[in-house]
Amino acid sequence: MQNQKSDSTKEAVECNITHSSTVSLDQYQGDDEMQTVYEAVGGHEGLLKLAEAWHARVLEDEVVSHAFSHGYHPEHTERLAAYWAEALGGPQRYTEEYGNETTAVRLHSGNGPHNDMDKRAIVCFDQALVDVGIATNDKLRQVLHDYFAWTTINTMARYPGSANDVPEGLQIPHWSWDGLVGHQ
Fold it and tell me: Which pLDDT score, from 0 to 100, does residue 23 have?
């Protein structure tokens, strides 16, 4: 199985909002290699806090908020946390309850190219890591940044022309401490 890490360029964009929700850093103690990224981030609770912090930031961003201007599912952050959990080594709740990768990618497709929005969403994610206290763990912060940047640029933005271009049967890509798992 070959793993790869993504190099992404962060653009200095401010998402002006403050948050007080933090994840206990006690969960990061021990050998990162012995636990999944999902476990290191605090499982479902940690990812839900991260999803809430990221969602709050993007709603305040003048560019990224456009993606949500026509409304969004009332359980958006719960679904996002379930998606991230599955990708980062947690339970397959997203696939079992909400759909598969095809479903997720179609939701983000057919909107034309949006490179600036993607870059700003990544910056908001990095700031959400700070908001929930993850940024103090350099290894975990970097792995989560790399995952989010990779999936934003390589999966969610892959089909700008039409949601109908997204093939059936896609599976959620998995990410480990070493990057993308099982893709060449």
Answer: 40
- Report which DSSP code applies to 59: H
Q: Distance of CA 86 to CAs 23, 68, 79, 154, 176, Å?
A: 19, 23, 11, 17, 11
| pTM (predicted TM-score) | 0.79
d(CA 78, CA 97): 11
Cβ(124)–Cβ(61) under 8 Å? yes
Cα–Cα distances in angstroms (integers) from residue 16 to residues 2, 20, 39, 92, 131, in the given order: 39, 14, 29, 34, 12
Q: What is the DSSP string of 124-155?
A: HHHHHHHHTT-TTSHHHHHHHHHHHHHHIIII
